[in-house]
Amino acid sequence: MSAETSENAFQKLKKICVPLMGNSLLTPDTIRSTSALLTDLVNTLRELPPSTLTPSLTSYVFFPLATILRRNALSAIPDQMLEKIFTILAILCEAWWWEMDEKTWEQIFMLCGAVIGGMDAKGKGKVRDDESKETAANCMWALLHERDANDDPSGSRSYKRAADAFIKFQSHARNAKFIPVLGQTIDSLLATALSSHLPLQRISLKILRVILQHYAPEDLVPTVLPGMVSTMTKVILGTKSTKGWTNGEIVAAALCVMQHAIVRSIGDDVCVRCGVVKGLSDLEDLTQLPSESTTQATPLSGPPYTTTRNPAWLHGTASQLHIALNSLTSLLTHPTPSALVALADFSEAVLSQTTLTLPQSRALLISFLLSLSCAAFTTVTDTAIGALRRLLDPSSSARHVFLGVIVQISRDTLSSLPLLMSSRADAKVEHAAGLIEAVCRIAISDNGGSAQSLSTIGAGVGKLLGPTGGIEKWGWRLLSVLEFTEAPVGETAASAAQLTLEADPTVPSWVSFPEVTFKHMPSRSVRWALENMFRSLGRVAGEDCLFAVEWFTAVGGNGRDSMAAAALWCACRLLEGAAHVSLDSRDFSSVSMTRNRRIERFSRGLARKIAEEWEEDRDEVVEDRGPQPPEAEDTDILVEHVKEIVPIRGTVNFTPLARAKPSRTKQPLLHGYFSLQLICVTAEILGARFAPLLLYALYPVLASLVSPSSFLSASALATLNHTAHSMSYASPANMLLANFDYALDAISRRLTRRWLDVDATKVLAVLVRLVGRDVVQKAGDVVEECFDRLDEFHGYSVLVDGLVEVLVEVVQIIKDDEGSRPARQVPQDSLENSQKDSDKLETFVEWYQRRKDENTEAREDIRDSSYPREAWSSTKQPDDEGSQRQDAPDPNEEPPSSPAQLLTKQIISRSLFFLTHGSPAIRAHILKLLEFSVPVLPESALLPSIHQAWPYILNRLNDLEPFVVTGVASLIETLATEVGEFMHQRIWDDIWPKFRTILVTLDSADSRNALARRGVGAVGTESAYTYSHRLYKSLLRTMTAAVKGVHTQDSALWEVLVSFRRFLHADAHEELQKWARELYSAASLKNKDAVWLVLNATEGRVAASVAFLREAKWDIGQNTSLILAV
Q1: Can you tell me whether residue 666 is helix, strand or coil?
Q2: TTI1 N-terminal TPR domain: which residues (predicted)?
Q3: Any idea what DSSP says for residue 893?
Q4: Angle, nearest 10°, between helix axes 221-237 and 248-266?
């Protein structure tokens, strides 16, 4: 520092300090000016660099402050002025600390302590505010906190200088005369540590930490330990906080204070030095254990402020301290990671430094670390796991002690789980499961992808899940309390999962399994905790847990009740852990493990076993072939919850009947759900090597996909998704296509008299939809299989319906393929009708002008060419024209049929007989089959079949089921569009009279329909999903197609126009109005005059002979304008 800089600083401070001395005596006239000078002094000191505050300059600034404090009573100084004085002292002490003498340090310390403790009032009742105490505490912190060489304002950077100055003040603080002051200050700081003013609370805890760590004598800490622990516990738990919890930074500071208090008062090192406990580092220490008389001897008493350490004191203090530590359990749920990290550090420090003195608290503190290792925050988890591994490090002298405690915790927690579950203590179950998961987590260290277990923990878990682990005992107790809620029973004709897969066969990259909940523990966090616990156990045990998986699977295959479902759940979670896979993981690329041939071999057998057991009737009792639960004894009944009213009669001779033993609930859906999960896990384990097992495992998955239960079908969709990804397929549809033969074989085997499954036809229909256009190459055998089964099971409506539905799907896929459609010739009249009148007139005028200019075409030779024109022996070469004429293709000859058309023709020819089947659903399917085949088949193959089936088609218009009539109308619409010439006579002679009758019938039925529209001239129903609305729409569309594609008859067209006027009414349904406009627009192309006359006569614009057509109740004006404007 240059002399010029110091001189400038002196001049700035002199301008303030001189008038401040003049106003040192505080009166009402000088308080304002003195306060302003103090403010200027604070600002000036903050602007000056620390290096300018030399000892002489610091003393110069300190002198007016000391004068003010000396000339005025401390209680007479206002709070605001006192805050400025302490702020100045804090700035000065940061630089003055290096050269300050012990006397000045003590006086400033006592001044700060007096203000913090409120001892400056001297009984006058004046209490300083929290801001004044905060500035006093900041000044005290400037006196006490540690410094290193980098903080030296002189720039010497001497570590010895910093250490000497700190030791000087530390020694003075431990002086016997200063101890009462230090004790009183600690008491004051404990009071301010409970303040609601957060900055004061924070600085108080910092000062307490540094006093306990560096300044308090070793014999004083046990004296203040009870108050220190009690106060810090209150601070941590937030007993005075309205929020119910304390700020994380405050919790961390309070735990740090408590840690230093515990370690310095009851730590191993200090207690060993005092002879309270004996440290054991080798075998020789065992021979030097103190005798009972020695340990119970009462040592000499010390100073009054100290506490003598002895075994009795240690025993009592350890017990009280354990109670205080136990109260910190609620801190595990603190919402801030800083508090949880501090708890982990606190637990590690206390465990490592009080191994001998606090044996009863070892399990509690280790349980803290185990619980924190499962926290949601990564920093907390890493801190807790790191602390546990350091405690269990081979270099740790107490490693064997902590290892034994962890094993005991695991054993006790596993034993208590069934009791906690049966008592429905969700929080306790979650905590217990988290402890076991944490034990498993610290037993595994991921190094290069390999799992290395701590020998003791890994061996213990492997033994527990192995043949000698007694699973026959603890397994039944666990299964007896694990019960899931019933799966949703809502049923639909087509599951949401099936519709999703059909609409988008690629399916999203992630499809999760539906969630299930425990019956008595509905919390989702409890289920996650138990799942993670079982996965962790399986991961630690590795292949040693396969015995437990096999045992649980055997129990699951022994029935379809709640216990069997729970057993499959346990087996699935253990196998996930052993194989390092997870059905909850969205990142498929992250699931990897070293191949374990024993686990793979077990998985192959398990997948096949599950597929074989799937075929058993889930509603029947399965034969007892697996482990059976032991008979219940009175000692096994721990807790019983009853949810019902127990009647109590007040008669003397009343004897209540013994309660019947509750039977286990049948849960076939949950059993199938967990079976699908096991199949999925085995597929994840085997990967591409799972392909041969699809012969057995694919059908159960597809059968579940078409299940009427949305819960089971969604599970099957998730299984397909996981299996496809594990086998490296882009989508489930690609996997099914690649393994179509496996699926077809499985379906065929389930459509025999020996083995009949009604769901097999639904599975086959799903396969056909997913395969798509490739069905032509793959479905030849499918069609033959369907007709063979139709011949065999034609009397069973359910099977016939399913098989016909498969045929419909095949023909629909062929129809959607544009390449399979034959070329149709557009009728000449249709081309003419599509032209405008103006275009027709221009064509006529053009022909009329050129009619005489056209060359007369050569007349065709009409001579008979059946005899030769020359001699047979003529040497003239025969004309090759005849041979060329024979070789030329016939323009009227149709091209050969494609494989798709041949397949469709075969289906149609063998399906017509079912048009008269007793089931309306089958009749509707056959009509749909005919409709889909019309665009596919050429006329030579289509028209004979339609002609043959025409009487049956007409009869279906008289069907009692509206959806069958709708199917007929849709078929006729397609025929009119594709083969209009063929349908000309049939439309107007056969179809239209029946349609007219249907319109009259529907009009009469709507008048009695509760859903019919109300009002003058109302038409149809309110809903678009009623049978009448759908039938109206089908009639409109059919007649529109007939008018467009069939040559019309004027009389019939007039009847059509008159009959369908009602649907142009403004109050009719919007969809019916749309199709009615389409009909009249198409009719206007054929006979626009008739359309104009009908519409205008209906509105009353045309009188005379058509006045009878007027309908005032129908408002068709807007639709008429749209139609006639075209």
Answers
A1: strand
A2: 10-374
A3: S
A4: 160
Rounded CA separation 566/482 (Å): 6
Q: Please name the helix (run of DSSP H) or strand (run of DSSP E) that holds residue 451, with its range, or none.
A: strand 450-453
b/e sequence 667-684, b meaning 16+ C-beta within 10 Å: bbbbbbbbbbbbbbbbbb
Quick one: pLDDT at residue 139? 93
- The alpha carbon of 430 is separated from its chain's Cα centroid by a whole number of angstroms, namely 19
- List the beta bridge partners of residue 518: 484
Q: Within its chain, how far is the Cα of 390 from the centroid?
A: 35
Give the Å distances, CA to CA, from 560 to 33, 489, 515, 625, 707: 91, 16, 19, 13, 17
pLDDT (tens digit, 9 = 90+) per residue, 1079-1094?
Answer: 899 888 888 888 888 8
- Integer-rounded Cα Rg, in Å, for the chain is 48
Q: Does residue 90 contact residue 138 with C-beta atoms inside 8 Å?
A: yes
Question: 368 in helix, strand or coil?
Answer: helix
The conformation of residue 991, written as its DSSP 8-state character, comes to I
Q: How far is CA 460 from CA 84, 626, 1089, in A?
A: 65, 27, 96
Q: What are the backbone dihedrals phi and psi of residue 121, each rounded to the nearest 5 degrees, phi first?
A: -80, -30
Q: Report how far apart, in Å, the C-alpha atoms of 17 and of each of 65, 70, 672 are.
A: 9, 16, 89
- Between strands 444-447 and 450-453, the pairing is antiparallel
1078-1082's contacts with Cβ under 8 Å and 24+ in sequence apart are 1078/1036, 1078/1037, 1078/1040, 1079/1036, 1079/1039, 1079/1040, 1079/1043, 1080/1123, 1081/1123, 1081/1126, 1082/1040, 1082/1043, 1082/1044
- The pTM of the full predicted model, rounded to 2 decimals, is 0.69
Condensed to tens digits (0 to 9), the pLDDT of residues 86-97 reads 999 999 888 888
Whether residue 866 has pLDDT greater than 80: no
DSSP designation for 753: S
Residue range 182-193: mean pLDDT, rounded = 91
pLDDT band at 244 (very low <50, low <70, confident <90, very high): low
Report residue 957 as tokens. 């218009």
Q: Where is pLDDT greater, at 1097 or 817?
A: 1097
